[in-house]
Design a protein that fits this description.
Length: 191
């Protein structure tokens, strides 16, 4: 008995059932490669095998697999780039100190409320433009690889963007939390 082990491979099971090794090799040679995603848990083809074969033939892999694999690579690149992490944290602390010094000890008056609105506008504007700059600067070194993989049809632009977003999210969230804590206490936003 021959059991398929995944795409393009087959192995003989220990139970030969009286079939010679030559006959087993002849059967193995006639097997067509089949994508692993169409197998059920017991090794048989699922009902969606035509759809899955067509999708894998045109794209090479599923959207989820592309996002997961690209996110893994991007996580590795982000967390091994110490200068990127340091830049995010230093930039957040610096902006928080500057904003805190400008709006130090806000009062509970009409002008204090207007100052709070100015502070929130300044922080929001900084985050909007700062996020765009981070994306532009992190894309520049990866551009040749991105272009080469795009030309090969490895993944879509959406997959690349989502993978970078998910991989940079923890570092950016840490920087935002640090900045918010500093501004909150220095500017006197405590109610």
């Amino acid at each position: 008995a021959v059991v398929s082990a995944g795409p393009g491979s087959a192995i003989a099971s220990p139970a030969t059932d009286g079939v010679s090794a030559e006959e087993q090799l002849a059967v193995v040679a006639t097997l067509q490669p089949v994508p692993a995603c169409v197998y059920t848990h017991d090794g048989h083809m699922s009902g969606a095998d035509d759809y899955c074969n067509e999708y894998l033939r045109t794209t090479g892999s599923s959207f989820a697999i592309q996002v997961v694999e690209l996110t893994k690579r991007s996580f590795y690149n982000v967390f091994h780039n110490v200068s990127f992490i340091a830049m995010i944290l230093v930039q957040s602390v610096f902006f928080a100190i500057v904003a805190g010094v400008i709006f130090v000890n806000l009062k509970d008056t009409v002008t204090g409320v207007q100052d709070r609105i100015g502070l929130l506008f300044m922080v929001t504007t900084n985050k909007g433009f700062g996020g765009a700059n981070i994306g532009l600067h992190s894309f520049k070194p990866e551009r040749p690889l991105f272009v080469r993989e795009q030309q090969a049809g490895s993944y879509s632009v959406l997959v690349y963007y989502l993978a970078n977003f998910f991989s940079q999210l923890p570092i950016l969230a840490l920087g935002q939390m640090l900045e918010a804590i500093i501004i909150y206490f220095v500017a006197g936003l405590v109610i």
